[in-house]
Specification:
With 153 residues, this protein is an alpha+beta fold. Helices cover 45% and strands 16% of the residues.
Length: 153
Amino acid sequence: MADLDDVYNLRILELASDIPCSDRLASPDATASARSKLCGSTIAVDLNVAGERISAFGQDVKACLLGQATAAIVGREIVGTTLGELHDVGAIMRAMLKDGGPPPAGRWSDLALLQPVKDYPHRHASTLLVFEAVEKALSERAGSQATAAAASR
């Protein structure tokens, strides 16, 4: 089992102290929020999508240290990410925490800093909160697009 010093290390503290994209978007294509029932952390996200890529992102993070650190990494890397890649990163994070899978690679490799959280299941929800909010926003956007397309027929 990972020691708590491995979970709450200096790099996690540094990330949490400087969260990018902390301003909400004025006219988002999609918006959603997610809340951890256990600790009360909340993250609200706004995003714009151009084609199949995230073109703008904003977030309001009221979360614990782990939620803040994850939101910082996502805020830094999300713009320019394809919707498929974003879905894959979220799935890799869930597998890393819940099933002991490998961490994300490439530009998302800083998420490996959160790998020790796998030993603390009660911290998984807050660590994954930003992914939950983004996926919820994208799902609601897809639903709205489908409704609009059906109405225009």
